[in-house]
Amino acid sequence: MTDKRITRRSALLGAAVTLATPALLRAQSTDAFPQEEQPISDQFPVRRNISSFREQHWQDHFDELGKGCLLADISSRAVHYWGPDGETYRLYPSSVPLTEELTKRGYTKVVRKAENPRWTPTPSMRERDPSLPAFMKGGPGNPLGTRAMYLGWPAYLVHGTHDTRKIGRQSSSGCIGLYNQHVEELYPLVQIGTQVRLL
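^ that's the sequence the OP posted. Answer follows.
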């Protein structure tokens, strides 16, 4: 016979699981409000963002495919890439600028690429944080991660990051960040001259 002593902790834990289970099941099974708040209870609404992270079409943003198209959607924190063959498509979660003031929007293109890029903080970055180094070579700890694609606007890049906590958040000084494994997948696809839109 097993010892089934009920402690205060196990009783509270059991009660919490019992109370939460119906709400969790409703949250998983209900798709009635894909873009709105989905109330689990009056006190704890759940916000769903799935609908904003969805496939888009290059024709909605660019006139032609050319060498390929890259869209950084700041609102949904996603990067979309369409290859020049008309069939290649990639969608990745990204980090975005901390504030609207740091956000650049509009059209540009990829002008340069680098593996294990070195990092030189801008004067405004060093003004905000004087502890930043003047220069950092590529490698672990470098905020540009393992790959970088430089845009036509000075100091704006699409790059990787070693700090995975930044992805999906407003966390950059203007750049668009990707997980290292995603930027390494995207990097060989993106050609110099690829069209870019920050939306």
